[in-house]
Write a structure and sequence with these properties.
Two copies of one chain form a homodimer.
Chain A: E1 6-12, E2 16-23, E3 28-35, H1 39-42, H2 45-59, E4 67-74, E5 77-79, E6 84-86, H3 99-107, E7 111-115, H4 116-127, E8 136-141, E9 145-151, E10 154-155, H5 187-190, H6 192-204, H7 211-217, H8 224-232, H9 236-260, E11 264-268, H10 276-289, H11 292-297, E12 299-302, H12 308-317
Parallel strand pairs in A: 1-4, 4-7, 8-11, 11-12
Antiparallel strand pairs in A: 1-2, 2-3, 5-6, 8-9, 9-10
């Protein structure tokens, strides 16, 4: 009887590297994490990953040939064909990193890589809110806004890997300047810092009674979580800010739907912790901005896997190696 | 020696049905067309198509087994799996039409169907401006605005067939009411009637010297072609209208690019007869609204196949039957 092989998923981030061992059907059997050592131009990261994988394989009394493959999600610009990464600034990776060749040599396990937002999209699609559907879009609202699009069961990378750059959909043609150099990107309104920025700007023109307004005027530090919490508590300015943020998200989701008509648009990331309070308002605008067929066949959902989306999606990259 | 088989492409429209016989590599060898008889709830259409195919096969001294398959593009709501069409109002097809089963029974040739905009996209992708790339988006500017999206080499239909509804991207949240029931759809600004509508509205607030303004004030019939021709002749209002239309097209193309990063966004249809005069202005706004990677890797191009995109793309649907 053949023993079922396992998959390894690696979620590489600027502060931690998360690992998991999964069955080929996507059940997590073991997970652990290490700190990301970004010193010396990030030169310790890949060796640390190799050591940690080898150590845990030994710890669990396993061998390399019991694994079908390793998949990894990485920040920066990922070259999937060559297994390299460049320009991951939160890792101090400024020069080209030969991630695949080093990890394959160091672990003797076949390896695949994609960018972190795409990998999270694959995770939510496979084992989360995407219900393993062939048509799923994923938006993650965190420090930035990222995304991944799955159509006909495959990630859409586009011709230069910029497919799924949902954070850079233009939602306000003459809007805020984005770090990418153009104006009005969704990221400037719906990321954690974007929400705060919208709050500050709306506060300037707001005249009524509002705790949020008082805190801003008082120079207190505010967070997107605070904005949502106050809005839930009926704060007048807070509600206006959430409405504005939801409007932009709904417009972006509407146009995503009009182009791709996915079964699910899954919203994850820190800002989505606001839960159904956010989802319901985004859905209202999504319906306003979507074509009737899309309105009735594309659903907005909250992500379900939280932090585990990364390792699960990364592991799913290695499913291609299952024999 | 095996004789190379042929493909048949059928482009079903409200006034004519176009046919072509192609090699399996997409070279047109024969083409012809018949009038679309929409009388009696369009009940003559499918029999007429069958008769015309059989007649021409005989005429060219061929037999059914010399064809790999027939592909067809149709207006209305197409069910690809079942080979049916419903709600094609320009054909008077209000009830479900069993197109595939009838044509297969009538011709003894395997048959596949998709909607007309998707089929035109496949045509431009295969033998036109799309250069047979795996990542191509197609926008057709005609009476309406349609489109088709090819990602990873396959059409994106989405969960309910509304993938590629590029005409219903919201480009002006509080804009013109569309026939689809929502506001600000691209179709309301960039279709042939949309361009005229923009001209009429901008004329109301225009005070300078303009032949277009004079013609509108005089109650003369104007067309989108006239608007573009006058703009090319330096008409002040005409130039403003083309700029506005290009802005909306550039915004839609930018967001298409930001989501999908295709190699080419191909613009076809009657309005695109304005040629590079239109393309250059749309490209200017596309660059303004696209993420840097997209700006440098996604190109806007004019369609190259004209009326033949439909039959070529339709024939390409039958490539799946090549043995």
């Amino acid at each position: 009887m053949a023993i079922e092989k396992k998959l390894i998923g690696v979620d590489l981030g600027g502060t931690t590297v998360k690992f998991a061992i999964l069955t080929e059907t996507g059940e997590i059997q073991q997970k652990w994490s290490i700190e990301t050592n970004v010193l010396d131009e990030g030169s310790h990261i890949v060796p640390d990953i190799i050591d940690s994988i080898n150590h845990h394989i030994q710890l669990f009394d396993m061998t390399a040939d019991q694994f079908s493959g390793i998949g990894m999600g990485s920040p920066g610009t990922v070259d999937r064909a060559n297994g390299t990464v460049i320009g991951a600034y939160n890792l101090n990776w400024k020069t080209l990193q030969n991630v695949q060749s080093e990890i394959e040599a160091g672990t003797q396990i076949t390896f695949a890589i994609d960018n972190d937002a795409n990998v999270a999209a694959l995770g939510e699609r496979w084992k989360g809110a995407g219900e393993d559907d062939d048509e799923v879009a994923f938006i993650t609202l965190g420090t930035g806004v990222g995304g991944g699009i799955i159509a006909n069961g495959k990630l859409v990378h586009g011709v230069a890997g910029a497919g799924g750059e949902i954070g850079h959909i233009t939602v306000e043609p003459n809007g805020y300047m984005c770090t990418c150099g153009k104006r009005g990107c969704l990221e400037q309104y719906a990321s954690a810092t974007g929400v705060v920025r919208v709050a500050r700007d709306m506060a300037e023109e707001f005249a009524g009674q509002s705790k949020l307004k008082e805190m801003l005027d008082d120079g207190q530090e505010i967070t997107s979580k605070l904005v949502f919490d106050l809005a839930k508590d009926n704060d007048a300015l807070g509600k206006m800010v959430v409405d504005r943020v939801s409007y932009y998200l709904g417009l972006a989701c509407g146009n995503l739907g009009n182009m791709l008509n996915p079964a699910y648009i899954v919203i994850g990331g820190g800002v989505s912790a606001a839960g159904t309070f956010l989802l319901d308002q985004v859905t209202k605008y999504f319906k306003q901005f979507s074509f009737p067929t899309v309105r009735s066949s594309t659903s907005l959902k909250l992500a379900q896997l939280g932090n585990e989306a990364g390792v699960i999606g990364a592991a799913s990259l290695a499913r291609q190696f299952i024999k």
